[in-house]
Amino acid sequence: MAIEVRIPTILRTYTDGAKAVDAKGATLQELIGDLEARHPGLQDRLIEQGALRRFVNVYLNDEDVRFLGGLETPVADGDTVTVLPAVAGGAR
Amino acid sequence: MLTISKELVDKIIEHARADHPDEACGVIAGPLGSDTPVRFVPMENAERSPTFYRFDSMEQLKVWREMDDRDEEPVVIYHSHTATEAYPSRTDISYASEPNAHYVLVSTREELRESVELRSYRIVDGVVTEEEVEIVPA
């Protein structure tokens, strides 16, 4: 079972420059674990203290996983997971 | 150096003024590798705050996909500071996530009165480098 994971520019150092990589898993958590095995270091950029990092957006197909089940969100063959760093900042 | 048309500069300033005192934010897309900002995309500040901005996550996905489909990239990422100078804050630096983008900041703080300060930076790995802005006729 393969799921396409789209990697943003800033994280492509972990994927040898690849814009998209395949990974496996039944949930987002498992998928990220599999990504980590293939591309060490990536998990740390997505997860902090057992939860998705606040300033990283992860989408399953067309939905932000925060509105689904977070790391517990089920994923399946043919799905696309997109990672986009949040664009954020401000005076304070 | 950032080279940008007068028309796009005016659009950024207009957006910043319209949303003042909240921070305004958006991107200007351009063809991949061209380093030329072309397509103005004002974004919703999901925080609607005078001191913080964050692109709405669903709007960001839509806009980033559009850029992908059109072989574009975010050449400029802009936002406004509404009470302080147009210099990247600690927050701006820690969340800067597009190493190829020009980060444009505008200040609409009151002591500037009718004028607006607009400056551009590269922010890579926590290091801020200010760059010259060349404004060219559209």
TrEMBL record, chain A:
It holds the Pfam family ThiS. Gene3D superfamilies: 3.10.20.30. InterPro entries: Beta-grasp_dom_sf, Mopterin_synth/thiamin_S_b, Sulfur_Carrier/Prot_Modifier, ThiS/MoaD-like. This is Molybdopterin converting factor small subunit. The lineage of its organism: Bacteria, Bacillati, Actinomycetota, Actinomycetes, Streptosporangiales.
UniProtKB/TrEMBL annotation, chain B:
Keywords: Hydrolase, Metal-binding, Metalloprotease, Protease, Proteasome, Zinc. InterPro entries: JAB_dom_prok, JAMM/MPN+_dom, MPN, VirAsm_ModProt. Residues 2-127 form the MPN domain. One of its GO terms (molecular function) is zinc ion binding. One of its GO terms (biological process) is proteolysis. SMART domains: JAB_MPN. The keyword ATP-binding does not apply. GO terms for cellular component: proteasome complex. PROSITE patterns: MPN. This is Proteasome lid subunit RPN8/RPN11.
